[in-house]
Amino acid sequence: MKPMKISEAVVRRLPVYLQVLNDLTMRDVQTVSSQELGSKLDLNPAQIRKDLAYFGDFGRKGIGYDVGYLIEKIRQILKLDQPLNVALVGAGNLGRALCNYNTYLKDNMKITAVFDVHPSMVGASINGLTVLPMDKLKETIAERNIRIGIITVPAPEAQNVADKFVEAGVDGILNFAPTILRVQERVRIHYANFTTELMSLAYYLDEEGDKENDETIVD
């Protein structure tokens, strides 16, 4: 029997659930219902229950979810219950910002190595990480058991970096460069493209503006 295929939309909602649950823990909330979660996230409670049910029976009828237990289970599902080392290539402004964000991460996923091709960058220190040359990438990934790579280089250099990540054995890549990458099927790629997100946001702003203009037109 083949394992159930979970949709990408469901997987992308899990970290959002985890974020809210962690906030509830900080406020000493011990149980939460799907209705309460739905209200906080502006989601249908039935959708939340359905998402979580793909992975197990975590709630109790009439009581809801034990917040601590659900956090533990979602962390296991997302593989955050174990150290997950990340490498970053591109020590420019964005790369530095992401490395500095390490300080605020509470989970086991951390950037543990940063690389750059430019000699002026190599040797610099970013939040306790020393920028390494690209010729150290493969051995460092093996030594530190790095499974995810982040690309923050200009678009023309991104495919070459992706190829080096794949050759080094990473399983997933988060690409910030505004370009489509081609890699082996075994490697999962996610894109974080500021330009396309802003463009799509602009579409909705224009739509709202048109509505407002329509309502204020006087014959």
Please describe what this structure looks like.
- It contains 8 helices and 10 strands.
- By secondary structure, the chain is of the alpha/beta class.
- It has 2 domains: 8-78, Orthogonal Bundle (Arc Repressor Mutant, subunit A), CATH 1.10.10.10; 84-200, 3-Layer(aba) Sandwich (Rossmann fold).
- The chain has a 7-stranded mixed sheet with strand order 6-7-5-4-8-9-10.
- Helix 6 packs across helix 7 (155-168).
- It is elongated, with a radius of gyration of 21 Å.
Give short descriptive properties of this protein:
219 residues, alpha/beta, Arc Repressor Mutant, subunit A, Rossmann fold, 2 domains, seven-stranded mixed sheet, 10 strands, 46% helix, 19% strand
Measured between the Cα atoms of the first and last residue, the distance is: 66 Å
Note the run of SSEs as H and E: HEHHEEHEHEEEHEHEEH
Q: Biggest sheet: strands side by side, in what order?
A: 6-7-5-4-8-9-10
Overall geometry: elongated
CATH architecture of the largest domain: 3-Layer(aba) Sandwich
